[in-house]
Amino acid sequence: MTRTASLIRMDYGAASQSRDYDLVRRGIQFLSEGWVTQPDLDALARHLGLEATECQKLFKRWCGLSPKEFVQAITLDHARSMLSGAAPVLVASHEAGLSGGGRLHDLFVTWERMTPGDVKRQGAGLEMRFGFHATPFGEAVAVAAPRGLAALAFVNEDAGETRVETLDGLKHRWPFAHYEEDTSATAPDITAIFGSVGSMAQRPIRLVLIGTDWEVRVWDALLKIPMGRAVSYGDVAHQVCTRKASRAVGTAVGKNPISFVVPCHRVMRSDGGLGGYHWGLTRKKAIIGWEAGRILNQLRSP
């Protein structure tokens, strides 16, 4: 597929994607809060103001799962089952050849950090391009530095956040950089990240990370977590230095500037609880369920 065709595919139905995510987001919240009672399809459809058939098709179209399968994928029991018996998941996945280009994660990512000079200048002299885009998880803003993608953040509508506030939250990392809105500059990365399975293999994403040595080490560890797996903060701490650093890991995870691509959503509490998520727990549940759907679909394929 040509780059132009890929961008057209991304633009096509962008409004529909945004509507779908809003409905699925509300549906996930409904199912998550009442999963113990196992609400049926009719109850969910009534809650969303949809016909039952349309509701079923929406979930199938969005992630390949029925509402029943979806709620099973995002409950805490699912998170606990991913964590059980596999303490050093990062180590195991690395030894199994799942890190880098060969990992189960469908994103092929390379990264570098900002130079010490860039960090010292706090972005002075850097030209940063940004754009707002519809994604399967709501609207997001991407920021591109000269050498790669520097930031990706969802507009956290659950917290009443606006576009301006989301962008301002990213700008503080490079306060003296020059920012210019240029959606065409960030669209190729968005297409590659949220496109079809395997699209990243055809167009690798290059990341530019800015942070302390500790933060970058933690983010690098997150990049090694395969899709469909979850780790605890203690697991990440063990990989980076020692399990006793779990609290410091949690702080670094919370400062992750590139959502979804650097998969901080795959880090849970050691008891199987979801833990926190800068862009809202409903979105974290949605991403986990979406990834579970992709894994199931891959397993079902002949």
Short description:
The chain is of the alpha/beta class and 302 residues long. 50% of the residues lie in helices and 14% in strands. 38% of the residues are buried.
Q: Distance N terminus to C terminus?
A: 23 Å
Rg, alpha carbons: 19 Å
Helices and strands, in order, run as: HHHHHHHEHEEEHEHHEHEHHEH
The helix/strand class is alpha/beta
The share of residues in helices is 40-55%
Unreliable spans: 1-12, 76-106, 197-201
Globally, the shape reads globular
Average residue pLDDT: 75
Biggest sheet features: 4 strands, mixed
The proportion of strand residues reads 5-15%
Number of helices: 15
Strand order of the largest sheet: 4-3-2-5
Count the beta strands.
Answer: 8
Question: How would you describe this structure in keywords?
Answer:
14% strand, 8 strands, alpha/beta, 50% helix, 302 residues, two-stranded parallel sheet, disordered N terminus, 4-stranded mixed sheet
Protein model, in words:
The chain is of the alpha/beta class. Helix content is 50%, strand content 14%. The chain contains 15 helices and eight strands. Strand 3 and strand 4 (148-154) form a beta hairpin. It is globular and about 60 Å long. Mean pLDDT is 75; it is low at 1-12, 76-106 and 197-201.
